[in-house]
Design brief:
With about 90 residues, the protein is mostly helical. It has one domain. Helix 2 packs antiparallel against helix 3. The mean pLDDT is about 90.
Length: about 90
């Protein structure tokens, strides 16, 4: 892997981690439950990006399998929490 691509991947990883910190702050200090749920869903998406970047940097395929499993669980969790919010709002 070239040095330029390696540097770009590390920069992208740092940006993703910074965005995760910002989203964790929003989950902790969110105005309402919908805002917190959206931030939690974005955290899940950013973690998927971090895992894919780690797979590219370390050249290890286990991170991709872990990212796929996390994506499935994140989708199911988001649907379940959205349904709970919809039912409790009535």
């Amino acid at each position: 892997m070239s040095n330029l691509l390696n540097s770009i991947l590390w920069l992208a990883l740092a940006i993703h981690l910074g965005l995760i910190v910002a989203c964790v702050w929003r989950v902790w200090r969110g105005d309402n439950i919908v805002d917190r749920l959206t931030s939690a869903d974005v955290i899940g998406t950013l973690v998927l990006g971090v895992l894919i970047l780690m797979a590219m940097l370390l050249k290890d395929h286990i991170f991709i399998e872990l990212a796929l499993s996390l994506a499935i669980l994140g989708f199911i969790g988001t649907v379940a929490l959205s349904r709970y919010i919809a039912v409790s709002a009535k």
